[in-house]
Amino acid sequence: MPAFLDFNCSKTIDCKQGAVRAVRYNVDGSYCMSCGSDKKIKLWNPASGLLLKTYGGHADEVTDAAGSCDSSYIVSASLDKSIIYWDVSTGTPVRRLRSHAGGVRCVCFNEDSSIAISGGRDNAVMCWDIRTRRLDPVQVMKEARDCITAVLTNEHKIFAASLDGCVRHYDIRVGELTCDKIGQPITYLAQTRDEQCLLAGCQDSALRLLDCESGGLLSEYKGHQADDYHIECGILSNDAHIVAGSCAGDAYVWDLLEAKVLQRIRISDNGGVVHSLATHPKRQELLFARRRDMYVFSTDVQIEEEQL
Amino acid sequence: MDEEEHLHRFGTPLEPLEKDEVPAKKPLAIEDQIVKDENGKRRFHGAFTGGFSAGFWNTVGSLEGWTPQNFKSSRGEKASKVQQRPEDFMDKEDLGEFGIAPQGIRTRDEFAKESEQEQRSGHRKRKLMQPELAGPIPGVPVLEQLLRPVRDKVAVRILKSMGWKPGQGVGPRQTRKEKRQASARNKREQYLLEHYGAEGLPSTNTQRESEVEDEEADDQDEDEDITFAPDDYEPMFYSPKDNRFGMSYSGLSRAPVLSKSSTIAAPLQHINLFGHLEESAKHKQLSIRGQAFGVGAFEEEDEDIYAKDDMTRYDFSLADKQPKQKKLKHVQQRHVIEGFSEDKSDTTHNKPYVIDLPRDFKPRNWLLRRSRFAPLDAQRARKIAEETEHKKAGLGRHDLNPEQRAQLLGESQDKKNPFKTANSASSQQERSKSLLELISAKSNNFTKGGLITTTGEEQPAAPIELGIELQQSNAALLAQAATKTQNLASTTPASGFKPFLENESKQLRYEKFLASNLKDDKEITEFLAELQPVTLSLWDREMEKKEFVQAAKIYRPLAGLMLDRFVSEATVQAQKSEEQVQSTEQHKIVMERTKAMWKPSALLCKRYNIAEPYGGALPEVEKELKAKSKMSIFDYLESSVNTKANFQTPTIIPKHIEAPKQQQQLPKLPTLVPATTTTATAEEEVTAILPEAPKQPASSATVKATFVPKTPLEQAVDASRDKPISEKTDLFKSIFDDSDDEQETTVAQEQQQADVRLDAMQAALGLPSTTATSAAAANVLRNNSPPRGIFAALFKPAQEQQDTKPSDPAPVKFAPIAGNKLKIAYKPREERLKNDRELAMEQVPDVELYGPKLPTQLKQASPDGAVQAEASIDAKLQQLWQQHAPSKRKAEHWVERTLSSSADSDEDSSDSSSDDSDAKAKKSKSRKRHKSASSKKSKKSKQKAKKKSKKSERTKHKSKEKKSKRKH
Predict the structure, then answer these.
(1) Where do the domains of chain A lie, and which CATH numbers do they carry?
(2) Which residue among B121, B214, B491, B548 has the highest number of C-beta atoms inside a 10 angstrom radius?
(3) B895: which DSSP letter?
(4) Residue B641: CA atoms inside 13 Å, Cβ hemisphere, count?
(5) Angstrom distance (rounded) from CA A17 to CA A34
(6) Cα–Cα distance between A229 and A246 in angstroms, integer?
(7) What residues pair up with A269 in beta bridges, in sequence order?
(8) Who contacts B121 (Cβ-Cβ below 8 Å, separation ≥6)?
(9) What keywords is this UniProt entry annotated with (chain A) (predicted)?
(10) CA distances, A294 to each of A50, A247, A288, B484, B928 (Å)
(11) What is the DSSP secondary structure assignment for residue B56, as one 8-state letter?
């Protein structure tokens, strides 16, 4: 059990793209993307705060983005009901896929980035064969009764969290749909690195740790305020800590096992909802999105000293 | 004659006509005349052949033939546009004299007359385009004649070609000096001409002198080399004098007096509003003005009417008088906004009129529409209030003001709107207090309620705390309220509310009715009947009763009613918060897990690198729904048990026919072994090659599990399954009468059939079947309905042959021929087993095998005893089919010949000498294997072409052979 070190702000980046809707790391955490309400995605170097590229082409707010496993493509979801597959280096949209009947809320790649999975406000999860020129989804899952808020995938499963309070596991290997009903609208879903547990951020200001195998409720994490916001949550790379934003300009870090608050990260004294966050895939590093800014938090003391 | 000699002759005379020569030839008729071009090519053709001179000698070709344009990469010159002219598309003739675009020397259009132009260009105005003569003005429209397109005159064009430019004069180029002199002269002359006419030209001597002086001054910068074009000569237009005024007299301007330009000589001049004043000032001095008829005797003389202009009258200073005036104005207008000036007139100081207003006048803007929610004016409000007093009077509640009511309802005033209450409650004394004091007082209130924290921020007080405090205060208030409402209750019936105030007697009755406090309907009617006057009709009485009852209900005293219905807001909130706390505490997340089937698409599985669950055999609901709309011949294959949903046989047809052929030819295995000529070794090798081929019939079942398309026999067997057992038994008997144990197994199989089917359904549904399903389930899965549609057509010939008794087709079909039966009976068991093995080999999945696979689960299922038996039965049935069924088909010899023509036909016959049919089959198989690929191919293609007929032929032939051999 690694000792917990407090997170400190190492960087604040003004994204200059309106409200930042989501922040995401790429596959190895060396870059990050911010999705803005100005319909653009920006690629940053989180360490230096350098803007690397801007991807424009969506017709509405960008809600989510994901980088491919080789970091050469980005797939982004937007409220314009389309998802766009971007070439990272050229900044041009390679493909634009529209089948969703509503705004797309979330998107992710599978492990080898051959399939993009998107979930939208039309209650549908769609799997896209992103490398081919096929313009229609490979598969559409319409079991959800409300908006899809998060999609995840691993080697053989697709997880979809919905506002209808259910986490749906689509097991490709078994050909089975498992629906875990929590009963509270789920605003975000995160997966532990060992793929044994799912962390569901619920609307009733609680995070719930679910067991993938049995569907049991393992733990609850409370303390933050979700209100009516779609607060995201995350599991830190060591699988020992859990983090979630809050609507009062702060974020909370819990111990995964003991479910107690380890740190209340005060991001801003001026309030503002910390709705989106991303955990670094390797290091103890966090990205937060609040209003128009992106914050990089890390436990690294050196960076702090540098700042001072 | 003499005279003729003196005449001059022009031209060549016609040959004199012979005496009797009459022109024999008829002149060619117009329709016979052919117009030819210089090449002697016919120029005009009929309308249907393209008008005139179409193509090349009336063809679409050309002299060079039809050559496509060479490819020329336009990569580099995409942007450059190729300008195509109409000439590019014209023939040579078109450019000729009579073509559509004749080319020759002629006068330019500019010089040509209009008629000539028309003639030449052929752009004759069409009739339609010509101006209508039927207009009000006959002839060519005047406007058209007047307005012509502007074109340079010929002279101008000539001048231009000689180097002249507009704006400069004509003549030799001048030096600067010369030019200046000339310009000065011109100016002078012009001025004089303007003002005095040609006669008044003064001698230029004096001016000459001054000019000379100027020249001297400028001499330094003169350069002789630089020459200039002479100034343009402005032509002087001498207009004829058309009046009798004095020389250069312009007369009075006729422009309107008010217009400022009236002062100027030229009334038509463009009026420049801003630069006007200065100009006019100059003009005044320049122009010579006069009076119409001189000066009268009693009039003052105008100032020098005929004064000559001289330089003294010019302004030489830049500073004008006007700036000065402006300055003055600025000084005057000190306290006035820029751009405005003080009004000096006294007219504005008018005495205001005083109007005697009526005393009760209230100003009102009648244009403003009054909202119905706006407060009424006091007078009207009073009036209305008076009118409706009796309505209001009913409830005692109007005695209370809002605050009192709020107290009654347990509303805490300071909480809801502290400022308002403070204002309303503030007495004169409070008002006199300073604002600070007021605020501090308020803050005291707040702190009491725990609303203000030390930080100064407003935070919601703890709900429970608030509730307690309020309840305490409420208790007192409620006590007060109770007393008040008690009072009300006692007073209302008597004095408080009088709904029937208009009718006094009615009101009295009502009060009595209330006092009586009756409940029963009958009693009320009786009670009222006593009170009501006799004049009232029965209906009125009834109505009154109803009214009273209603009124009593509605205007009930409020003793308990209010408290029942209304609860103070504070308590409601407290309850709510309590509930919330409880709910959050009580609400436990109960996880529910539900599982359902879900079919991932094949591509998704592929991309995830995962095998499709159940081998992709999961039924997909959505797709099926979609596919249903499409026509499929399988829709006609009706089946009782197996619907399309749980059974997948997408395409069987082609293999359906090949299956029996495979039985005969034996499957060609992908790996070929070197050819063996001797039959004995061949047989051994077959077994060696096929290690997977089961040695025992028991294991054959597992191999058989792979789906093999239905053969006609299988279909027939399936069909027979549905028949009553009595029918079946004799069939089975006929087949298996020699072996008891097998018969037992068949019975067992029959019993199991239901179970097997169930299992198959489960398998098809993707459910893991609990019972050990056999490979035989695969057979059960097959469509066991009688052939229809295409299949019916396929099997018809066989049926027709068999059908001696059409009423009872199935037994006839499968009732073995006596000879056959015997043969089966005599067949040793070993042989049959071998046969089974062979069949099993055939079932080994071939590369060519077509059709869906069965779920892998079925494959892996361990074979059961009974299942084995069934498998063996199947094998037997197939063998049987091999032997006798084809014999019933029509013989077609030409098919046979093609087969027998192959090299192994001899061997075939020689092999057949051995009565072991198995061995023979195997040999043939092995032989086929070492045959060249080409022959195989050709055979295949042939087979494909002939398909069924051939197959049947072969089988028949063989069986015949067998028969004959066995007879020996």
Answers:
(1) 17-240 (2.130.10.10)
(2) B548
(3) H
(4) 20
(5) 9
(6) 9
(7) none
(8) B109
(9) Cytoplasm, Repeat, WD repeat
(10) 12, 15, 6, 64, 76
(11) B
Q: What is the predicted ipTM?
A: 0.90
DSSP state, B493? I
Whole-angstrom distance, CA of residue B250 vs CA of residue B239: 13
Cβ within 8 Å of residue A263, ≥6 positions away: A4, A6, A7, A252, A253
Of B593, B594, B618, which to mutate for an interface test with A (greatest number of A Cβ within 10 Å)?
B593
| B299 pLDDT more than 70 | no
| Chain centre to alpha carbon of residue B887 | 66
* Cα separation, B482 vs B463, whole angstroms: 26
Residue of B712, B717, B720 lying closest to B808 (CA atoms): B720
Mutate to test the interface with B, among A110, A132, A172 (most CBs of B within 10 A): A172
- Give pLDDT tens digits for B58-99: 666 677 776 666 777 777 766 666 778 887 777 777 777 777
Alpha helices in B306-346 (DSSP H): 322-332
User: Is residue B919 within 8 Å of B926, Cβ to Cβ?
Assistant: no
**DSSP-assigned states of every residue in B555-608:** T---TTHHHHH---HHHHHHHHHHHHHHHHHH-----EEEEEE----HHHHHHT
| DSSP notation for A1-25 | -PPP---EEEEEEE--SSSEEEEEE
Structural contact between residues B290 and B304, judged by C-beta atoms closer than 8 angstroms: no
A265 SS3 class: strand
Question: Using CA atoms, how far apart are residues B660 and B952, in angstroms rounded to an integer?
Answer: 9
- Residues of chain B in contact with residue A124, where contact means CB-CB under 8 angstroms, are none
**Residue ranges covered by each domain of chain B:** 35-55+93-102, 153-237, 388-497+555-565, 696-888, 893-968
CA dist B115 and B124 (Å) reads: 9
Question: For residue A179, what are its two tokens?
Answer: 């629906």
Return the SS3 of B959. Answer: helix
pLDDT per residue as tens digits for the range B328-357: 444 445 566 777 777 666 555 556 667 788
> Which of the two residues, A155 and B416, has the higher pLDDT score?
A155
- CA angle B469–B474–B478, rounded 5-degree value: 165
Q: Are A164 and A144 in contact (CB under 8 A)?
A: yes
Q: What are the start-end ranges of the H helices in chain A?
A: 301-307
Rounded to an integer, what distance in angstroms lies between the CA atom of residue B905 and that of residue B928?
11
CB contact under 8 A, B598 and A171: yes
User: From residue A147, how far is each of A58, A167, A178, B9 by CA, in Å?
Assistant: 20, 12, 18, 114
Q: For the segment B448-505, what is each residue's pLDDT rounded down to a tens digit?
A: 444 444 444 444 444 444 456 666 676 677 666 655 555 444 444 444 566 777 778 8
Nearest chain A residue to B592 by CA distance is A181
Angle between helices B865-884 and B740-765 (to 10 degrees): 110
**Residue B925 neighbours by CB distance under 10 Å:** 21
If you search the block for the tokens 């049959």, which residue do you land on? B832
Partner residue opposite A179 with nearest CB, options B594, B600, B618: B594
> What is the C-alpha to C-alpha distance for residues A291 and A276, in angstroms, rounded to an integer?
10
d(CA A54, CA A31): 13
**Strand pairing class (A285-290; A274-279):** antiparallel
For residue B592, the chain A residues in CB contact (below 8 A) are 179-181, 183
**Measured between beta carbons, which residues in chain B are less than 8 angstroms from residue A136?**
none
B930 sits in the region (left: phi over 0; alpha: psi -120 to 50; else beta) called: alpha
Query: Number of A:B CB contacts under 8 A?
Result: 89
* A226 close to A217: Cβ distance less than 8 angstroms: no
Tokens of B247: 């020389």
